[in-house]
Each structure stands twice: as structure tokens, then as C-alpha cells.
Amino acid sequence: MSIRDNAHQSMKAIAECTGYLPHRDQPNGSRDDIDPANNNRLFKIMKDESERDATFIVDLVLYHHDKGCIFYSQGKSLGKIAYESRRKNGFGYD
Description:
Layout: E1 2-11, H1 31-46, E2 53-64, E3 68-80
Antiparallel strand pairs: 1-2, 2-3
């Protein structure tokens, strides 16, 4: 059996947001390096956008090699992209 999760953001203002890799898929660097770099890149892309709606989406799958998908669930959290980082120890796109 395997369990797999995937978390990502969806933003109305930009159709495709490339370059944002989950921490487990980053070749090097720690969360302390990756989050601020991703935040700053997104703030730069979004600087002139007034439409700042965003959705954080998480998928969870439990898969059995003989029986296939046993369980699948998706959760969504609606929010807005801030104009600047608000916390010293914030996660993701504050």
C-alpha cells in the first residue's frame, strides 16, 4: 500500500505559476531558503494584480497495488495573496 499527498496553490490572476516546487521536490536548500524565495518571486509577479484570490489545495490518496485506489480526498482553503510577507516565520505565501 502507498499513501501520497500533494499540496499546491491556485491563483486566479496567473494561469500558470511555474517554479514553485514542494519542499520534498527541491534538489537543495532548506525550508528557510525556499519559502522566502518562492514568496518574493510570487510577490513580484503579483505586484500589479488587484485580483488576489487564491486556493490552497491538498489531495490525499491511499493506493493498494492489487486493488487500486482505496481512498481519495481533496481539501481546499480559500484565501488571498498578501502584498508582502507579514510574519518572520510564516509558511508559504503568507
